[in-house]
Recover the amino acids of this structure.
């Protein structure tokens, strides 16, 4: 039977990693509580009935805030935080610590260990009598992201409409930068994120790489594809994701019998995109099923990130049998064997991106031959394997303490 020191309190804002961390701990009998902003208790009959009365669009969106493998009895929602964050989303940095504080009090009161996602970890770790402190560092170290953005001078008119490390107040930047040094162990999804932590003062023996997983039953190949080359981008249209490089590369190439399809929320200032609307099809945000169809119909996913902790869309594309083109500053490049299941190019390199896209347009049969290796790669990264690896890391850590 697990002792109090073997039990874990998990804290995160949102449905991070589809709740696979708390699910993993629950499956192993090690979860004391998940503290989060909002969890939909669909395992309670009254909530299930009430949810069915909502419009289908809203119901589909909020239903992602529940997983039957994680009983709501193990979850504590902080609705006040959720409401305030919905009302004023740009203030999240000043507010997110309240989730960590609540989780820290629970862990300290019950002498549990704590597993905190980045940005909530500092306040969570501040509680006394916490057995073991583990940080899930989703993104590269903030200093690495900031350096990548500062060094990128390509298309300065392409301005982000979201707050990033360049906009963070100095005290917030310093807090989030120190966070990895407070943990007994930092778990990251890629060797790239691990490198950025080591470059910023985190000891290598305090970092473990556990790649993410993917739902292999949902994200799976389909047989139908058009003869027209279809390149897909999925993500925020921002500089960190390298979307300005892709848009400009596509505009300059003017490839015949080819299309670039972009899935993601448009910037508030849509004038940024006006120069590309005649070359690119902007689809906006899509639900899961529509996104899966885009992955399936695409011949190539392109995510030319400047600094990216993983890039989950790459793994989703591979699971659908779609090869991926990404950069050496994107964590999921760990999964790519250049020329076999995709391509890895230098970050912030327009010439390499143009050359790779042009090659794809001229070699459709070779691109099709990458589909089977792409799927085979994804099959090595199930969520089940991810959960087992997480539990093994945590049990090894607590055994040493």
């Amino acid at each position: 039977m697990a002792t109090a020191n073997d039990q874990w309190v998990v804290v995160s804002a949102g449905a991070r990693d589809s709740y696979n961390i708390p699910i993993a701990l629950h499956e192993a009998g090690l979860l004391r509580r998940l503290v989060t902003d909002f969890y939909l208790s669909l395992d309670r009959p009254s909530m299930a009935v009430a949810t069915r009365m909502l419009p289908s669009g809203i119901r589909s969106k909020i239903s992602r805030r529940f997983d039957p493998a994680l009983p709501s009895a193990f979850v504590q929602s902080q609705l006040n935080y959720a409401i305030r964050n919905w009302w004023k989303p740009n203030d999240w940095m000043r507010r997110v610590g309240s989730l960590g504080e609540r989780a820290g009090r629970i862990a300290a009161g019950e002498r549990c260990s704590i597993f905190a996602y980045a940005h909530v970890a500092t306040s969570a770790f501040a509680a006394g009598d916490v057995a073991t402190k583990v940080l899930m560092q989703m993104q590269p170290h903030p200093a690495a992201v900031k350096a990548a953005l500062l060094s990128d001078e390509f298309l300065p008119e392409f301005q982000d409409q979201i707050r990033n490390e360049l906009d963070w107040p100095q005290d917030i930047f310093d807090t989030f930068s120190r966070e990895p040094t407070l943990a007994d162990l930092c778990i990251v999804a890629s060797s790239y994120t691990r490198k950025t932590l080591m470059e910023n003062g985190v000891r290598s023996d305090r970092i473990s790489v556990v790649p993410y997983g993917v739902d292999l039953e949902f994200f799976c190949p389909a047989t139908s594809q058009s003869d027209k080359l279809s390149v897909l981008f999925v993500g925020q249209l921002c500089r960190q994701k390298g979307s300005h490089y892709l848009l400009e590369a596509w505009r300059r190439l003017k490839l015949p019998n080819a299309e670039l399809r972009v899935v993601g929320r448009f910037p508030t200032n849509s004038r940024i995109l006006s120069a590309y609307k005649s070359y690119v099809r902007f689809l906006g945000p899509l639900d899961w099923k529509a996104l899966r169809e885009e992955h399936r119909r695409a011949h190539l996913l392109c995510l030319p990130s400047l600094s990216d902790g993983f890039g989950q869309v790459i793994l989703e594309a591979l699971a659908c049998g779609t090869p991926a083109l990404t950069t050496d500053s994107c964590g999921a490049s760990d999964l790519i064997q250049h020329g076999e299941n995709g391509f890895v190019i230098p970050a912030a390199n327009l010439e390499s991106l143009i050359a790779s896209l042009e090659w794809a347009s001229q070699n459709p049969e070779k691109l099709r031959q990458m589909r089977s290796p792409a799927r085979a790669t994804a099959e090595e990264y199930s969520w089940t394997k991810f959960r087992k690896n997480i539990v093994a890391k945590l049990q090894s850590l607590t055994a040493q303490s």
Remarks:
- The chain has 17 helices and 13 strands.
